[in-house]
């Protein structure tokens, strides 16, 4: 039996761009699917096709047991959607926005009022509740839009990058709301650039690139596919990056990634703790001083890099904060380096 969200061979083209190139999905009821992929991979297009906002060129989709192409209106009644770009009425207050959604879904005025108040509280918007939404900051708008998607609790929810632009506290709050919803039986398709978010919330993950699913599985399965552990070494001096890379190359099972500003080197290995001791001895023999060395399991970042050839763009800064670090400089960092180089050249 197909799951609560089901798609088969979805194709959508825009001129020459094949935004979706035959996507299959099957999300069991009451679970969360994390849709990951670099910018332009086709995530939003998939969400828009599944939520009746776009008509696919070919393929089939069934949501909450209803055929999306044949009965779009019925599908709309069974789903909630929070899009990538917040859709709130600028001239209404936060409270009015939420009450209006309740009334559109034929809630009684009293129930809509109570639900609005509850959601404003949950999303830390009570203080701003009676100001027009046009005075809200980006993160506040985002939260109001998410709250609007939760006014009625539909059996199937779609959230396109729900936590992009939220501060850590509000991101945490949303994760808790999502976990509650799902434990109550809601099925959720969530797109995200934050791999730790997929790690925490998603039962299954689909990685898309160029409109195709290039990998799927649980976070653990995907990590296992990326191959064993990683050794991470932080050398004491920048000059030691090159000789230390040579040492690691000799022990590793893949390319050594070096991050110059943190003096951190990472290499995939097999052989665990014993190998670690050997690496330490070899570095010592060559007189290379280190500040830190450790063995870690692959993160979803490693998975992402090995599958798509680069880091998830927005995850770069995010993981920096978490102290996990990506193993290759992200595009944001590269762009910054390029800008700095230009400034140097202009001097
Ligand atoms: N309305 C449109 N007209 C033309 N091209 C489009 C349209 N919508 C999407 N595309 C193209 O389809 C491809 C997939 O876009 P989509 O928005 O689905 O990517 P995404 O995975 O959501 O990316 P992001 O992470 O940046 O949100 C891109 O090449 C995009 O330029
Ligand atoms: Mg998108």
Please provide a written account of the structure.
The chain is an alpha/beta fold and 347 residues long. It has two domains: 217 residues, P-loop containing nucleotide triphosphate hydrolases (Rossmann fold, 3-Layer(aba) Sandwich); 116 residues, Lrp/AsnC effector binding domain/regulation of amino acid metabolism (RAM) domain (Alpha-Beta Plaits, 2-Layer Sandwich), CATH 3.30.70. The strands form three sheets. Strands 6-7-8-3-9-10 form a six-stranded mixed beta sheet, sandwiched between helices. A four-stranded antiparallel beta sheet has the order 2-1-4-5, covered by helices on one side. Strand 9 and strand 10 form a beta hairpin. The protein starts with a strand and ends with a helix. The structure holds adenosine-5'-triphosphate (ATP) and magnesium ion (MG).
Radius of gyration: 23 Å
The CATH architecture category of the largest domain equals: 3-Layer(aba) Sandwich
Helix content: 40-55%
Bound molecules: adenosine-5'-triphosphate, magnesium ion
Q: What's the average pLDDT?
A: 85
Low-confidence stretches: 314-347
- Report the span from N to C terminus: 66 Å
Number-wise, the strands total 14
The top-level CATH class of the largest domain is: Alpha Beta
- Largest sheet composition: 6 strands, mixed
Membrane topology: Peripheral membrane protein
GO molecular function, one term: ABC-type xenobiotic transporter activity
Region (Disordered): 314-347
Family: Belongs to the ABC transporter superfamily. Drug exporter-1 (DrugE1) (TC 3.A.1.105) family.
